Amino acid sequence: MKQSDIKFAILPILFGFFVMGFVDVVGISTNYVKHDFGLSDTLVNLIPMMVFLWFAVFSIPAGMLMGRIGRRNTVAVSLGITIVAMLLPLFFYDFTSVLLAFALLGIGNTILQVSLNPMVASVVSPGKVTSVLTLGQFLKAVSSFLGPLIAGAAASFWGDWKLIFAVYAATTLLSLVWLLVGVHEEGKKTVQTSTFATVCSLFKDRYIGMLFLGILFIVGIDVGLNTTVPKLLIEKTGMSVSEAGLGSSLYFSARTIGAFIGAFLLARIASDRFMQCCMGIAVIGFVLLLMADSLLWISILVVIVGLACSNVFSIIFSYALQHLPERDNEISALMIMGVSGGALITPLMGVLSDALGQVAGLSLLLLCLLYLGWISFRLQKRKKNV
Length: 386
Prior knowledge:
Oligomer: single chain
Keywords: Cell membrane, Membrane, Transmembrane, Transmembrane helix
CATH architecture of the largest domain: Up-down Bundle
Domain Major facilitator superfamily (MFS) profile: 5-383
Structural class: mainly alpha
Order of helices and strands: HHHHHHHHHHHHHHHHHH
Largest sheet: none
CATH topology of the largest domain: Growth Hormone, Chain: A
Membrane topology: Multi-pass membrane protein
Main location: membrane
Distance between the termini: 27 Å
Helix content: over 70%
Strand content: under 5%
CATH superfamily of the largest domain: MFS general substrate transporter like domains
CATH class of the largest domain: Mainly Alpha
InterPro entries: MFS (IPR011701), MFS_dom (IPR020846), MFS_trans_sf (IPR036259), MFS_TsgA-like (IPR050375)
Number of helices: 18
Number of strands: 0
């Protein structure tokens, strides 16, 4: 692909990361759906499950599909599924159709994440993959941040929160058209015949296994902090449930800002050294967080940890893609499957929290951070040996 073509091709690809963030509408939608249908927490919690279940189920099939029809066409399929998912609640609004819509959203998002990341690797130079993936994660975070605001505006000004789905459908259609017009070919014309067995065989590679656990742990840290920091605030400062949501907002905002800064720094700084510094800061900040007992210090330390962890996913993913470029479709599928596995950390934290308190539950995340710090030194050592 010519340099001029790459420059224009990266724009619709990056816009795809913005669409990727639409999956987080499940958070605000759950509250509205519960109110609209008078559902119990048990029933309404089926909605997030309908989204994230598919990361485990469809990651490997998405990689297999990508090997057959190519990355560009696979991204197009994912965007088409997302459009259908967004239109469904606008025409059929009952609990069953909502579950189906979010199931389709989860399937579309899984396929999008599996295919979009290696698509970046196919159109930019290896040295810029981490930086561009980080920029994509920033755009995804911005999209996630805007979701509740759009839903609130739709409810306030248009009288119907569901009109957020119309906005998302139109935006996804724009992304699909831009992709089909702006990306005419893939950077690498390789055919990868993938099966479940060939994808799972990647676990025999210890390096890939190490990075897979890294993805699992960083997602576990994200989910764990978002769900546990508010509880920590309630336990240590006596805040109300509604006020304690500040903790999650601070962490999410810090990750968004960190991804934006990281997109520029990672274009100039070696990603292994960058990750080492970030993990050192994260571990120190996290240990202090476990000891802090005031709102001010807990808030400051949550922001520090959020900033330090904001680029880890992109760094690990880029190293995985560059390890075996000829099998990047399969590697992408395996790494995205690790996203669903990250949810395993939260139940373990719950067991510890119920038995010993929120600090004990959060201590499990410290082990995850220490593992990620170990990975950063392994990455540097491996680079010296290559």
